[in-house]
Amino acid sequence: MTDDHRATGGGATLDQAEIDRLAAALDDAALNAAALSRQSALDGAPVADAYAVQRSVVRRRLDRGEQLTGLKMGLTSAAKMAQMGVDSPIWGRLTDTMAVGDGTLSLTGRIHPRIEPEVAFRIGRDAAPGDAFGDVVDAVAPALELIDSRYEGFRFTLPDVIADNTSAARYAIGPWQPVPAQLTDLAVTLDVDGTAVQTGSTAAILGDPRRAFDEAVRLADEDGLRLRAGWVLLAGAATAAEPVQAGTRVRATVDGLGAVSVEVRS
User: Fold this and answer.
1) Nearest one of 110, 142, 104 to 247, comparing CA atoms
2) What's the rounded Cα separation, in Å, for the pair 190 and 212?
3) Each residue of 149-202: pLDDT tens digit?
4) Which residues cross the membrane (predicted)?
5) What pLDDT is stored for residue 112 in this prediction?
6) CA dihedral in degrees (41, 43, 48, 49; nearest 10)?
């Protein structure tokens, strides 16, 4: 077992050939910016199958030279969990090619680009189940995540979105800050060209974004993965995602943590 991939198990029912076939279809859709029909093989499938496909998708990217840089949480709001019929969040993987380092977010190669404000945590040391948030996370920052489902019409089931690496596409992180005493109810605003288009609170992230750390450690451990020192954890969206267009400037502000912005280009 390695940190980025392990053999099918944990209740998966699809064989490895089918897992790899589904992963290849999703990977090709992302590479070619061509929307994919839903994967009927995943209809009613256990989440173990979906995560096995996700591992295979990311394994293809790692084989092309990408490196893991962190994890991201999804379905962290009560409303989204209810909509998808689950009682816990889901998670995906981040790689170095997904990081926006120069403040410019290109939409080239995207299918259904949408953006949402998040809270990011910096992992100070390798994490293990049972580790306390304050012993592992050494900094926090406002963040933006670009999501981009590879499915036609942005329509998918729970196994579909897990297999598609939770629609992960790109992420931008603002200046790192010391972890404040509380993160429970900080105001969050998403601006496009200076106009607020979404407002919310960090309370939308599992009631307290720090709970996303606990969930990430637990869920990743079930998949044979550990959060590593230097990695990023995107705790989850604080508002609904907003469709994004080239030629705009998008900014996320989290009260007490500062702001992060990107110039969106075609």
Assistant:
1) 104
2) 21
3) 999 999 898 999 999 999 999 999 999 999 999 999 999 999 999 999 999 999
4) none
5) 94
6) 10
Alpha carbon 195 to chain centroid, angstroms: 25
* Residue 56, CA distances (Å) to 18, 73, 107, 193 in order: 11, 19, 25, 38
Task: Round to whole Å and give the CA distance between 162 and 147.
Answer: 13
| Residue 85 burial class via C-beta count within 10 angstroms: exposed 0-12, middle 13-18, buried 19 and up | exposed
Residue 225 Cα distances to 51, 115, 233, 266, angstroms: 12, 27, 13, 35
Q: CATH class for domain 67-265?
A: alpha beta
Q: Would you state the pLDDT for residue 4?
A: 37
- For 67, counting Cβ atoms within 10 Å of its Cβ (0-12 exposed, 13-18 middle, 19+ buried), the class is exposed
Q: Which amino acid is at 114?
A: R
Cα separation of 233 and 137, whole Å?
9
Question: Across-strand partners of 254?
Answer: 188, 258
**In this structure, is the dihedral angle defined by the CA atoms of residues 38, 47, 215 and 208, taken in order, positive or negative?**
positive
Q: Mean pLDDT of residues grouped by 10 in the chain (266 residues)?
A: 36 88 97 89 89 97 98 89 79 98 95 96 97 98 97 92 96 97 96 97 96 96 95 96 97 98 97
- The tokens of 203 are what? 């309370």
Per-domain residue ranges for the chain?
67-265
The predicted-structure confidence for 67-77, as pLDDT tens digits, reads as follows 999 999 999 98
Q: How many of the other CB atoms lie within 10 Å of CB of 89?
A: 22
Q: Is the pTM of this model over 0.70?
A: yes
Tokens of 222: 């079930």
Q: How far apart are CA 79 and CA 186, in angstroms?
A: 19
